[in-house]
Amino acid sequence: MSEFLQQLVNGLTLGSVYAIVAMGFTLIFGVLQLIAFAQGGVYMLGSYAGILAVASVGTESKILAIIAAVLAAATVGALVNIGIDRVGYRPIRGSKRLMPLISGIGLYILIENAAGLIFGKQPKAYPALFPEDQFVIGPVVISLKQIIVVGIAFACMAGLYFVINRTGSGLAMRATAERPSAASLMGVNPEKVIIITFALAGALSGIAGVLVGTYIGVATPIMGFLIGLKAFAAAVIGGIGNIPGSLIGGLAIGVIEAMGAGYISSAWGDALVFGALVIVLLIKPEGLFGRRSVVKV
Q1: Most buried one in 64, 81, 175, 268, CB count within 10 A?
Q2: Which residues contact 283 (CB under 8 A, 6 or more apart)?
C-alpha cells in the first residue's frame, strides 16, 4: 500500500505538468481545430529561458530566481508561440487539417535543431531552485520540490480558468470556439483571439518547461518531443477542446506512467501511457469528457 501511495504522489506531480502543456493543446484546438505539435518545442525553449534568467539574477534569493525563471519562460513561450502561428499556421489558415499538422512537426524539428546549435546537444544542469526538504506523512515521502511544482501547476490552471471564464478575452475565445462566424458578426476580432490563444498556450508550455527542468535537474534540446506527445495524449484522453478534461487527462497520464515505472519498469511507463490512449479512443473516441460532434449533410 505504501508503494502505491508513493507512486500516486509521484504520478500526480508529473501529471500536473502534463496537464499544463495539455491545456495549451486544447486551447489552440478549441479555437482553431488545429493540433499544435510544436508545443513540445515551446516547452523546451521555456526550460532554457529559465536557466538563462536564473543565471542573470543569481541564486542568492531563491524566490527571486524562481519568479525570474517563471516569468522569463512564460514570456519566451508566449512570444515563440505567437511567432509559430505567424510563420507556420497563419499562411495556411483554412487548409485541410493535415497541412497544419505537418507544418507543426516541421517547426518542432526546426526548433529542436536550432536549440541544439545554440545551447549544445548535451544535457545542461538545471540550477537548484527548490529546497530539498522532505516530509514523511505515514508511509509516504513528499518532497517540498513536489509540493512547489504541483502548487505552481495548479496556480497556472486556476489563472487560465479565470481568464477563460471571467475576462472579456476569455469570452471572445469561447465565442470563437463555439461559433466563429457569429463571433465575428458580434465584433470579435478573430486574429486578436488567435494571438491571445497562442500566447496563453505558449506561456503555459514555457512554465511547464521550468517546472520539469527543476524537477528532473536537466534541460536538453530533445526534451520536448516525448512530453509533447504525452501532453497531446492527455488532451485527447480528457477530450481535446475540454479544459477540465485536459487536467484530468494529464493527471491520469502521470499516474499511469508512475505506476507502470514503479510496479513493472521505467521502460513500461511510456508504453502504458499510449496503451491507455488507444483503449480510451476505442471505447470513447471523443475522449472521456469530450462531446461527440454532429455533422449535418
Answers
A1: 81
A2: none
3-state DSSP assignment of residue 137 = strand
What one-letter code names the amino acid at 220?
A: T
38: DSSP letter: T
Whole-Å CA distances, 201 to 30, 37, 77, 224, 231: 12, 12, 8, 15, 12
Identify the three-state secondary structure at position 136. Answer: strand
Q: Can you read off the three cell numbers belonging to residue 99?
A: 497541412
The whole model's pTM is what? 0.88
**Would you say 73 and 49 are in contact if contact means Cβ atoms under 8 Å apart?**
yes
Show the cell assigned to 271: 508504453
Q: Is 1 helix (H, G, I), strand (E, B) or coil?
A: coil
What residues pair up with 135 in beta bridges, in sequence order?
142
Who wins on pLDDT, 55 or 34?
55
Query: Which cell numbers in the block locate residue 148?
Result: 512547489
Strand runs (DSSP E) across the chain, as ranges?
124-125, 134-137, 140-143, 218-219
